[in-house]
Amino acid sequence: MTPETYAQVSNLLIPTATVIYAIAMVSHASEWAMGRAVVKVDAKEQVLVASDGQPVSSGTATAAAGPVDHSSPSVRMAAASRIGVLLTCLAFVLHLGGVVTRGLAAGRVPWGNMYEFSITASLAVAIVYLAFVQRYRLQWLGLGVTLVVAAVLGLATLALYTPAGPLVPALHSYWLVIHVSAAAISGGAFTVGGLVSVLYLIKARAERKVLAGGSMSTALSRLPSAEAMDGTAYKVLAFAFPLWTFGVLVAGPIWAEYAWGRYWGWDPKEVWSLVTWVVYAAYLHARATAGWRGRRAATIAIIGWFVFIFNFVGVNLLVSGLHSYAGV
């Protein structure tokens, strides 16, 4: 196949993956819509442990113990969740194919401009999500993940598309692979951790209402406990932080010295990468030394996610600097 053919295949796969991610998002949205009904939850039995060791809601455990009613909201919600995850897997395969063929079309790693960064970073979000679905059963995060990935791919396709071409001179280094791959994977984990933290705040608020004698929607009752979600967010961010440290604050300066003759020059991208590191370092430090859990830790994680998003999008598109080629 010629580079032009690879480019055409990539240009077909990426929009197709975007559409399927959007359909998966609709499936997960219907899951939440079917769970709007309010159920009474016993505050003393909020969290049970399933046979696989994963926390489940009391409502889910009760449904599993009795006869299966295929018309019940819980069964229909579970079916919508499975469909959403399967569609996400299909979209991921197409997305991966689109990124690979983009690289083959350009004859290099596909990380040379903002369009390529966007399709690669969103692929990293999908990779981290699907990996943690397998490990920690994070399918309940599907709505947020598919929304973010579909939005990023849609923006990349409609507003950021750039034809495949050669790299700018500063990018001609094997440090490109090390630096960008580490930043993309850690960025995907930051996104997943941020979304988990958002849902943690929602679930924690619902649990406080239950303790006060209130009730909880079916959708929220199917989520793990707030405490379990807080622990999941910590695991995801603890995985991402050392990867970001190495890829951005170690490999990045080494590459900068190779490309520009200095390790650190307070370029806007460098500054905001450091700010991102400081916020997540504060998150991990607060949990380890001050015992911060719950709402305060989740708030820091969400702030860190927004700082990362600004670093990834805002700095590239709005601020002029040595990394401005990334917005091309």
> What shape does the CA trace take?
flat
Number of helix segments? 11
Largest sheet: 2 strands, antiparallel
Q: What number of structural domains do the residues give?
A: 2
Series of H and E elements: HEEEHHHHHEHHHHH
User: How helical, in percent, are the residues?
Assistant: over 70%
How would you classify the helix and strand content by structural class? mainly alpha
Q: Give the termini separation.
A: 27 Å
Calculate the mean pLDDT score and round it: 84
Tell how many strands the DSSP assignment holds: 4
Given as residue ranges, the uncertain stretches (5+ residues, pLDDT < 50) are: 43-66
What spatial order of strands do you see in the largest sheet? 1-4
Write the layout of secondary structure elements.
Elements: H1 3-34, E1 38-39, E2 47-49, E3 55-57, H2 58-65, H3 73-106, H4 114-136, H5 142-160, H6 175-211, E4 216-217, H7 218-221, H8 226-249, H9 251-260, H10 268-290, H11 294-318
Helix pairs in contact: 1-3, 1-5, 3-4, 4-5, 4-6, 6-8, 6-9, 6-11, 8-10, 8-11, 10-11
Membrane topology: Multi-pass membrane protein
Keywords: Cytochrome c-type biogenesis, Membrane, Transmembrane, Transmembrane helix
Main location: membrane
Give the structure's gist in a few sentences.
The chain has 328 residues and is mainly α. It contains 11 helices and 4 strands. The strands form 2 sheets. A two-stranded antiparallel ribbon has the order 1-4.
Question: How would you characterize the overall build of this protein?
Answer:
The protein has 328 residues and is mainly alpha-helical. The chain folds into two domains: 1-35 and 49-167, no CATH class; 170-328, no CATH class. Helix content is 73%, strand content 3%. It is built from eleven helices and four strands. Strands 1-4 form a two-stranded antiparallel sheet. It has a two-stranded antiparallel sheet with strand order 2-3. The two termini are 27 Å apart. The model is unreliable at 43-66 (pLDDT under 50).
